């Protein structure tokens, strides 16, 4: 699993230098609230479209999406950061993010295919928690560096080059990795039918949650800057504080998921993560968010581990590849709808109302 752990760390470094500030980057290019919402929605639409297309084209050739495809997709995904840094207006940024999402789709399918087929059910929670912990450590380092650099130098070209460099390091972990031997699990007809039923329930629940989150997600950093008078340093510190706390809780959540149960963990986690947009709405200054937002982030740590472990358990292994694409596409499409709705509300009524609506819907 060392290759997987290193991959998560370096890819988090690569993404964390720019991704948390992409809305601010769009703002500096002259994007309106509506365009910011549409940028996120368009990127996700490209992501799910190509993921569905690739999955159905290669459904009979699962080996095509393995370690080799993960290497090439990650390399070109990293290369796109250099091109994104050359954006001259919001529309060029939109185009380049859309192209990058093609490689993100291949990475998601290859990564999930390798993880689901190589980790036994009884220890998925603990391994996924460790993968997420490595990811968070990389994200913290990247966010601290990027927050300082962006605050002092702006969106300089070397920031995007650093994202490219760490992305290449991530891809190299699968350059010569031998084919992973999958775990073969036999299932009877009744088990498959039960798995399909549980899969549908998980799909509907996760899709609605992503819709609720997608309404506010593109505007959190914008709200800190435009309404609370914050800077990129504040955005970075909020992210760092959240990541530090989630790192501490990843391993405990992993044990809870494996020994207490997936469902109960997801339900309890939703209560915590629902508070995030509310905290943004009621905070009088960015400094309050340093301590409030991490509380909600603890919920995301538990939910992500439990949701992926539960997803891995309920899908029939014979249809895992196809269902992975359907699952990812459905929850991302719901986020797109949320982004469009959030962009409309933010443009005509203000971001504050976006935050309150997102909070209320998450609790449902």
Secondary structure category: mainly alpha
What does the average pLDDT come to? 84
What is the CATH superfamily classification? Answer: MFS general substrate transporter like domains
Molecular shape: globular
- Please give the CATH architecture: Up-down Bundle
| CATH class bucket | Mainly Alpha
The domain count comes to 1
Q: How many DSSP E strands? A: 0
Order of helices and strands: HHHHHHHHHHHHHHH
Strand content: under 5%
Q: Main beta sheet, described?
A: none
Work out the helix count.
15
Low-pLDDT sequence parts: 182-191
CATH topology heading: Growth Hormone, Chain: A
Task: Describe the structure in your own words.
The chain has 364 residues and is mainly alpha-helical. It has a single domain, classed as Growth Hormone, Chain: A. Helices cover 81% and strands 0% of the residues. It is built from 15 helices and no strands. Helix 4 runs antiparallel to helix 7 and helix 8 packs parallel to helix 14. The protein is globular. About 3% of the residues have low confidence.
Q: What keyword list fits this structure?
A:
mainly alpha, Growth Hormone, Chain: A, 81% helix
SSE blueprint and pairings:
Elements: H1 2-16, H2 22-28, H3 33-57, H4 67-84, H5 90-118, H6 124-153, H7 157-172, H8 189-216, H9 220-226, H10 232-259, H11 262-273, H12 275-282, H13 286-314, H14 320-348, H15 351-363
Summary of the model, kept short:
The protein has 364 residues and is mainly α. 81% of the residues lie in helices and 0% in strands.
């Amino acid at each position: 699993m060392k290759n997987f752990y290193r991959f998560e760390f370096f890819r988090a470094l690569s993404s964390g230098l720019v991704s948390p500030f992409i809305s601010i980057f769009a703002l500096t290019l002259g994007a309106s609230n509506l365009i910011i919402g549409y940028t996120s929605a368009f990127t996700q639409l490209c992501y799910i479209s190509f993921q569905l297309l690739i999955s159905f084209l290669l459904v009979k050739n699962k080996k095509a999406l393995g370690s080799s495809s993960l290497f090439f997709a990650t390399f070109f995904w990293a290369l796109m950061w250099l091109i994104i840094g050359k954006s001259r207006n919001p529309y060029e940024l939109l185009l380049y993010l859309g192209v990058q999402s093609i490689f993100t789709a291949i990475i998601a399918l290859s990564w999930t295919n390798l993880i689901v087929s190589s980790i036994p059910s009884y220890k998925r929670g603990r391994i996924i928690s460790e993968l997420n912990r490595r990811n968070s450590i990389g994200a913290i380092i990247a966010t601290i560096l990027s927050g300082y650099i962006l605050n002092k130098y702006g969106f300089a070209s070397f920031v995007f080059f650093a994202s490219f460099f760490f992305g290449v390091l991530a891809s190299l972990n699968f350059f010569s990795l031998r084919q992973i031997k999958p775990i073969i699990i036999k299932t009877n007809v009744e088990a498959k039918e039960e798995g399909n039923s549980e899969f549908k329930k998980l799909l509907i629940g996760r899709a609605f949650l992503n819709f609720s989150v997608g309404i506010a997600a593109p505007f959190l950093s914008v709200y800190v800057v435009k309404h609370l008078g914050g800077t990129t340093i504040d955005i970075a510190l909020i992210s760092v504080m959240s990541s530090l706390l989630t790192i501490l809780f990843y391993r405990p959540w992993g044990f809870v998921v494996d020994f207490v149960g997936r469902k109960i963990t997801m339900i309890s986690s939703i209560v915590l993560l629902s508070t995030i947009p509310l905290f943004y709405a009621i905070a009088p200054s960015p400094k309050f968010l340093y301590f409030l937002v991490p509380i909600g982030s603890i919920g995301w740590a538990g939910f992500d581990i439990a949701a992926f472990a539960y997803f891995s358990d309920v899908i029939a292994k014979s249809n895992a590849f196809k269902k992975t694409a359907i699952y990812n596409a459905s929850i991302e499409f719901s986020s797109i709808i949320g982004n469009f709705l959030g962009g409309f509300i933010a443009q005509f009524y203000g971001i504050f109302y976006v935050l309150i609506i997102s909070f209320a819907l998450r609790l449902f």
